[in-house]
Amino acid sequence: MILFMDEVISKWGFGSGISLFIAAGVSKSIFVQAFNWLPGPEGIAGVTYSAGAVPALFQSLAAGDPTTAGLMAAPLIFTVIVFAVAVYAQSMKVEIPLSFGMVRGHGVRWPLSFFYTSNIPVILVSALIANFQLLGNFLNNKGISLLGTFNTLGQPTGGFVYWVQPINIVGTVLQQGTIFVGATPYLQALFYILFLMIGAMIFSMFWVQTAGMDARSQAKNMMNSGLQIPGFRRDERVLERLLDRYIWPLTIMGGLAVGFLAGFADITGVLSSGTGILLAVMIIYRLYEEISKQHMMDMNPMMRKFMGG
Asked: What does the DSSP assignment read for 257-297?
């Protein structure tokens, strides 16, 4: 059914159906965690609040429970911050001016996004961490604690897998009522972010080479489209040298940035997960770009200005 609906959307709609399903799933998760009014677990003061952050925030304020109010307000605030930063970073681009060799006076701007490899690297890092935990739990059940130790619930309690799992450092500080909660939570959060950043950078470089996004492949695509650099002779090597100046820095910086943003979202306890929020933001932003490109000319002038035309 999903593949059929994806084909229908690809033919008659905008974007990819599978991507829209992913964005809808993440949006549903955020909406439920924010506005679920059904009773949740018992609060710190012994009062049962709603499971959603927004109703629980007002209920805790009315009950005079500032600790729970802070625990409910922090995910909402940091979710908005991560959304805003992700949208702003997604809109950052390096535009390379090109011209059509056969048509004088006409040119285009070839955009290179700051998140050049999108959020594919952080998805691969998250999958790698999940595989480490799965393998570590399996080995631990066999009496081999090579990757770490686990409790009866299957949660890491020590070893490598313990240090690469996210920890809600903001929730820990609010629950303890002080920033002096020991060095272990801060070191675990720092190690997790560094692991995501370095892993995302490595996977970003790997993805550029294997997905045809390197300078040589992009230069071939431009030459096949009849594009060239204004003022330079039509030569693929010239285009490749120019693109090399931008693609590798964007690959490295974009991988580090998307890894940091996903890790920051996880350690601050945002609604849903950091990877899910980044994925939803990038899918929705690309959908917005496709709609604006395909229907820019026949839009109302006010709507065209709103869409960035």
From this structure: HHHHHHHHHHHTT-SS-HHHHHHHHHHHHHHHHHHHHHSST
What does the pLDDT look like over 161-212, one tens digit per residue?
999 999 999 999 988 888 888 899 999 999 999 999 999 999 999 999 888 8
- Token couple for 168: 């809600």
121 Cβ neighbours under 8 A, 6+ residues apart: 199, 200, 201, 202, 203, 204, 207, 255, 258, 259
In DSSP terms, 200 is beta-bridged to none
Residue 55's nearest CA partner among 42, 40, 67 is: 40
Q: Does 74 map to a domain?
A: no
pTM of the model: 0.84
Question: Does residue 214 fall inside a structural domain?
Answer: yes
Contact 236, 220 (CB under 8 A): yes
Q: CA–CA separation, 201 vs 255, rounded Å?
A: 4
The pLDDT assigned to 7 comes to 79
Could you give the CA distance from residue 89 to residue 123 in angstroms, rounded to a whole number? 18
Domain extent at residue 197: 93-271
Other Cβ atoms closer than 10 A to 224: 9
Pairwise CA distance, residues 208 & 227, whole Å: 22
